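Figure 2 data, in text form.
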Amino acid sequence: MSSSPDTLAFLLDQLGGLPGLRTRRMFGEYCVYVDDKPTAFLCDDLLYVKPTEAGQALMSPPVWGRFYEKAKPHLLVTPDRWDDREWLRSLLLATADALPRPKPKAAPKAKPKSKAAKPKP
């Protein structure tokens, strides 16, 4: 089961105004980026936030979940907690602040110039 577009729209409305907020569709679900950092995943209409000490401190006690069987545990935020907009925004912002900056993508390698045959005199 994948997340519904209505769920995504509600979540983005709740998070509106966070720096660099965007989503990217991945494997039928969504990755939520804050400040160009992958901060959370929306899977099966549940929000899984990357685990950080800052995020765990805001979720007292932390609730853990996995969005698929072999995934690492993430902080699980069920939709009933999404109504507290300020708490949800502070959780994702604190998590993004605690995550390292993404590494810059390497520039594509230049293709070697082909050696064209020189015209004979």
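Caption note: The beta strands are 22-26, 29-34, 37-43, 46-49, 64-65, 74-77.
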